[in-house]
């Protein structure tokens, strides 16, 4: 796929959704961090259902520590891997309080040093909370980039590195959201809705569907 075609794809996605946003509910960088940590192997809908009551009870690292792992589990037990996630939340909150004054750090290195925070989570926080032009690659984005040939790669990191090279600068900040929403609602896993896709004529997928 050439540069002009990629630029056209992102221009169309931007035209459809000029100000793309995450579907996770949050009010502060800390709440976003916790929500993204909980979102691994879970839907945004299920995370939002849990974090509404959780954040009402504890919306700072200090308050979350006071809540404790057992009470946190009560709020997130409907989410997969809740035992591990509760433990990581407590450890992360302790690190935020002890090493960062209770604030979410703005560097990738500091974010990835937090328990339960990997590269994808760090990228989401940097992009969504702090406006950095990072691109987190989840299963939806990995599929879309390989299927369309926007940025094919064998691993999420390869796809991320290609996106950072190929996506025009003016579209980098929104690219993560446009691609994840496109994968979630249009370029779906089992049967892509090619007939309803605004970039179908630019997509290089060989097995297009009519749906």
Task: Report mean pLDDT, rounded to a whole number.
Answer: 94
Shape: elongated
Number of separate domains: 2
Structural class: mainly alpha
Query: What is the helix tally?
Result: 11
Number of distinct beta strands: 0
In angstroms, what is the radius of gyration?
A: 18 Å
> How much β-strand is present in the residues?
under 5%
Ranges where pLDDT stays below 50 over 5 or more residues in a row are none
Element order, helices and strands?
HHHHHHHHHHH
Distance between the termini: 24 Å
CATH class of the largest domain: Mainly Alpha
Helical residues, percent: 55-70%
Largest sheet data: none
CATH architecture of the largest domain: Orthogonal Bundle
What report would you give on this structure?
This protein has two domains: 3-20 and 144-196, Helix-hairpin-Helix base-excision DNA repair enzymes (C-terminal) (Endonuclease Iii, domain 2, Orthogonal Bundle); 29-128, Hypothetical protein, domain 2 (Endonuclease III, domain 1, Orthogonal Bundle), CATH 1.10.340. The longest helix is centred in the middle third of the chain and has 19 residues, at 82-100. The mean pLDDT is 94. It has helices spanning 3-16, 29-38, 44-57, 61-67, 69-76, 82-100, 108-112, 119-128, 139-148, 156-166, 172-185. The chain is built from eleven helices and no strands. It starts with a helix and ends in a 26-residue tail after the last helix. It has 211 residues and is mainly alpha-helical.
């Amino acid at each position: 796929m050439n540069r002009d075609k990629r630029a056209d794809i992102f221009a169309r996605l931007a035209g459809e959704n000029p100000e793309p946003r995450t579907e996770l509910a949050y009010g502060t960088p800390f709440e976003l961090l916790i929500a993204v940590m909980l979102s691994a192997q879970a839907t945004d809908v299920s995370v939002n259902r849990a974090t509404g009551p959780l954040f009402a009870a504890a919306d700072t690292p200090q308050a979350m520590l006071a809540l404790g792992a057992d009470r946190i589990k009560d709020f997130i037990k409907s989410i997969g891997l809740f035992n591990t996630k509760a433990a990581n939340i407590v450890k992360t909150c302790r690190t935020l309080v002890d090493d960062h004054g209770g604030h979410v750090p703005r560097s990738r290195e500091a974010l990835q040093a937090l328990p339960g925070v990997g590269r994808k989570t760090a990228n989401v926080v940097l992009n969504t909370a702090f406006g950095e032009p990072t691109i987190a690659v989840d299963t939806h984005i990995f599929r879309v980039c390989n299927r369309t040939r926007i940025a094919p790669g064998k691993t999420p990191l390869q796809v991320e590195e290609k996106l950072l090279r190929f996506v025009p600068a003016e579209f980098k900040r929104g690219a993560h959201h446009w691609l994840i929403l496109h994968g979630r609602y249009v370029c779906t896993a089992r049967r892509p809705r090619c007939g309803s896709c605004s970039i179908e004529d630019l997509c290089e997928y060989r097995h297009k569907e009519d749906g």
